[in-house]
């Protein structure tokens, strides 16, 4: 009897071990890594075969048989299984949860192989006349097929034929049906793209990358270059070398909407070699794309964070563009960092990783300095545009001058000048909505979410107060819910409020807004960006979304309304995030022909993150920041794990958090520092209280080993965040 070890594909910490099942002879050879249907309890589940029990082992319990096999070829390669295992130990998540990251989201106990597209082709003997005249629509469909020589279901639907009609046509003897994998870019004309010669600086950076690609050697490169220094061109060159090796290139980008330009450049260079992966794809589109990679119909995948789990065993290059970006860290379920997974996978696949950024993460730069990564630099912009000039405005002084507006005088000037010159401006504000909060002037109480410990935000569009932590929303109260006073007032300002202010002051300016509220509507965010790129707007106002990655030729001015909002968040990464945000935002100015101007408004004009970003001085910033981290033992000069216990009852959350503190303090006495239990700034979300514990040490690998096998690992309601950001 063949006995397989099967992991149940279900999110549960308690199922963190394989179950033994019999593989009936009728199923033939079923390799490790194959997904199968198994009986579990009274139901059926999807399982993944992760190993076989040696024949010599005899069991003292009865086993059930596997019901069916779901993959023709195993979904998991041995490398994927090994990476999942490594991930589960490093990030302290269960093995099933780690494996699930590699699968297509939903499972229906079906093979993923449904979604090929059906194409219909006319046989030579097919004629319109062979269809009875009364079947008018069928005749029209056949006439269309004959005229185009073959069409997919989608094309027929686009022509206005209903599904029943298409089905009837597909069943005609004169029609041949073929299943195909969809191309992502059906409209793409394969063009010969002129091979742009690299500049000297690019060639120097590219040489060691090329060497690693063709010799199939693991190496990690940190490519540090300001925006416009030609990093993307280096990625394209590297991807071409990888494709020539007949291996897969994985290109990770922060968020797909914002990186349309990256996709466009790759598609221009490689056409159908490219597949794109993002969260808005349907399951069949995902499957289709993965299948194209597996069959090597396409060799390049571009995607956000989760694309690092590409199910392929032959990766020849991984690029992590904007490697410092926060969106690479998943902040729920399994709290992994895509950069870390990229490094592991590259190591197992024997290929290079390129981490690219204008403002590398402190972590990566530290490793480059230590020689763990190879540092490659592109110090100059390709077209030698100068970096923009930056003006810092101290908002405390504005107040002293009696200017209480959200716009300082310098900001107003910049807007005015930009509009006069008919150039474009990007304006950054970190808060969406209309006002930050609504407060009663009589009793001083803000209007809070009933389920979370945060104040509600006023949204003008639907005249409602909304919670940004849960889905709660309510109409604006006419009287204070606490004291009944009518003196309810809006404080602070969000994107909607500023939009209104701008419109009032500059009535002729064409203003577009981009924040999560706009982006939530499908296609709307893209429309705004395209419209702005096409010059339909003068000012693009938005949250961080407008700061990243765009390359708008017409933008000469950037305004940052509050540099302090990120600086004030109580996290050890606050200065790093501020420096990134300001530098990236400023980098949007003056990418075309004209010089760029930036105005930064702040209440902390002396903070090093702000001063160094004004000077475009990454290295200077790094030096100050790493000193601060070293002094405090913060990453990368030490490791941290954050525990967040959530419970409806505050006492209960506190009790469990306290038990964690006591146990870890006892076991690891002098080796680690245990902080807490403590309440977070926002200590209740969706009616669950949050109590935190933080541990810190030079290295925490022993602590992780201990936790993996202790009650802490399986504690319900406990989120463990390794390397928190
Ligand atoms: P980054 O990714 O660092 O922002 P890009 O690769 O987008 O930089 O390059 C900036 C601009 O310079 C782009 O318009 C790009 O087409 C152009 N460019 C890049 N490399 C070269 C080159 N070797 N020769 C000419 N133009 C280049
Ligand atoms: Zn009141
Ligand atoms: Zn809420």
Automatic annotation (TrEMBL):
PROSITE patterns documented for this protein: HELICASE_ATP_BIND_1, HELICASE_CTER
HAMAP family referenced in this protein's UniProt entry, alphabetically: PriA (MF_00983)
Encoding gene per record: priA
Residue span, Helicase C-terminal domain: 475-649
EC number(s) from the headed UniProt entry: 5.6.2.4
Enzyme class: isomerase
Keywords for the protein's UniProt record, in alphabetical order: ATP-binding, DNA replication, DNA-binding, Helicase, Hydrolase, Isomerase, Metal-binding, Nucleotide-binding, Primosome, Zinc
Catalytic activity annotation: ATP + H2O = ADP + phosphate + H(+); Couples ATP hydrolysis with the unwinding of duplex DNA by translocating in the 3'-5' direction
Cofactors that this protein relies on: Zn(2+)
Protein name as annotated: Replication restart protein PriA
UniProt binding sites for Zn(2+) 2: 449, 452, 467, 470
Protein family membership: Belongs to the helicase family. PriA subfamily.
Tagged with keyword Phosphoprotein: no
Record note on quaternary structure: Component of the replication restart primosome.
NCBIfam families in the record: priA (TIGR00595)
Function as written in the Swiss-Prot or TrEMBL entry: Initiates the restart of stalled replication forks, which reloads the replicative helicase on sites other than the origin of replication. Recognizes and binds to abandoned replication forks and remodels them to uncover a helicase loading site. Promotes assembly of the primosome at these replication forks.
Domain Helicase ATP-binding: 212-378
Cofactor comment: Binds 2 zinc ions per subunit.
Domain of life: Bacteria
């Amino acid at each position: 009897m063949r006995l397989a070890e099967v992991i149940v594909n279900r999110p549960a910490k308690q199922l963190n071990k394989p179950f033994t099942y019999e593989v009936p002879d009728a199923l033939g050879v079923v390799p490790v890594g194959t997904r199968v249907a198994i009986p579990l309890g009274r139901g059926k589940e999807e399982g993944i075969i992760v190993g076989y029990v040696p024949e010599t082992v005899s069991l003292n319990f009865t086993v059930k048989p596997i019901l069916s096999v779901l993959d023709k070829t195993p979904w998991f390669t041995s490398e994927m299984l090994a990476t999942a295992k490594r991930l589960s130990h490093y990030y302290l998540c269960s093995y099933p949860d780690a494996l699930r990251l590699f699968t297509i989201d939903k499972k229906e106990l079906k093979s993923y192989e449904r979604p090929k597209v059906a194409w219909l082709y006319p046989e030579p003997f097919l004629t319109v006349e062979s269809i009875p005249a009364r079947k008018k629509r069928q005749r029209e469909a056949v006439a269309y097929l004959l005229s185009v020589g073959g069409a997919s279901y989608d094309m027929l639907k686009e022509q206005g034929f209903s599904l029943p009609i298409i089905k009837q046509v597909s069943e005609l003897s004169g029609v041949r049906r073929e299943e195909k994998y969809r191309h992502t870019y059906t409209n793409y004309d394969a063009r010969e793209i002129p091979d742009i010669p690299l500049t000297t600086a690019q060639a120097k950076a590219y040489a060691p990358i090329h060497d690693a690609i063709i010799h199939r050697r693991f190496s990690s490169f940190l490519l540090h270059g300001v925006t416009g220094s030609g990093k993307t061109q280096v990625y394209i060159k590297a991807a071409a070398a990888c494709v020539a090796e007949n291996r897969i290139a994985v290109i990770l980008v922060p968020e797909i909407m914002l990186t349309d330009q990256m996709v466009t450049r790759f598609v221009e260079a490689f056409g159908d070699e490219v597949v794109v992966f993002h969260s808005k794809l349907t399951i069949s589109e995902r499957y289709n794309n993965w299948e194209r990679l597996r069959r090597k119909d396409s060799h390049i995948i571009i995607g956000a964070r989760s694309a690092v789990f590409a199910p392929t065993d032959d990766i020849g290059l991984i690029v992590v563009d904007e490697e410092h970006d926060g969106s690479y860290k998943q902040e729920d379920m399994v709290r992994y960092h895509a950069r870390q997974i990229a490094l592991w996978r590259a190591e197992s696949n024997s290929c290079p990783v390129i981490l690219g950024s204008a403002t590398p993460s402190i972590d990566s730069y530290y490793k480059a300095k230590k020689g763990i990564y190879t540092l490659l630099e592109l110090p100059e912009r390709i077209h030698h545009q100068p970096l923009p000039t930056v003006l810092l405005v101290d908002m405390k002084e504005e107040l002293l001058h009696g200017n209480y507006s959200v716009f300082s005088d310098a900001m107003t000037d910049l807007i005015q000048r930009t509009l006069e010159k008919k150039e474009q401006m990007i304006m950054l504000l970190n808060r969406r909505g209309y006002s930050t909060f609504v407060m009663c002037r009589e009793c001083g109480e803000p209007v809070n979410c009933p389920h979370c410990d945060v104040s509600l935000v006023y949204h003008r569009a639907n005249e409602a107060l909304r919670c940004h932590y849960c889905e709660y929303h309510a109409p604006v109260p006419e009287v204070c819910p606490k004291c009944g006073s009518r003196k309810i007032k809006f404080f602070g300002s969000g994107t909607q409020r500023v939009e209104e202010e701008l419109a009032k002051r500059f009535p002729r300016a064409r203003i577009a807004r981009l924040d999560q509220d706009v982006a939530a509507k499908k296609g709307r965010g893209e429309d705004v960006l395209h419209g702005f790129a096409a010059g339909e707007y003068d000012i693009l106002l938005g949250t961080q979304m407008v700061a990243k990655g765009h390359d708008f030729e017409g933008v000469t001015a950037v305004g940052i309304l509050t540099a302090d909002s990120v600086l004030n968040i109580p996290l050890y990464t606050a200065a790093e995030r501020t420096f990134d945000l300001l530098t990236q935002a400023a980098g949007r100015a003056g990418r075309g022909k004209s010089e760029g101007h930036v105005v930064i408004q702040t209440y902390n004009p002396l903070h090093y993150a702000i001063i160094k970003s004004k000077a475009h001085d990454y290295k200077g910033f790094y030096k100050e920041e790493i000193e601060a981290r070293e002094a405090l033992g913060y990453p990368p000069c030490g490791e941290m794990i954050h525990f967040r216990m959530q419970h409806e009852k505050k006492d209960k959350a506190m009790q469990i958090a306290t038990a964690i503190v006591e146990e870890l303090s006892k076991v690891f006495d002098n080796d680690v520092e245990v902080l807490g239990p403590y309440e977070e700034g926002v200590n209740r979300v969706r009616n669950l209280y949050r109590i935190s514990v933080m541990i810190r040490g030079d290295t925490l690998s022993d602590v992780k080993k201990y936790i993996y096998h202790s009650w802490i690992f399986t504690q319900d309601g406990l989120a463990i965040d390794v390397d928190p950001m």
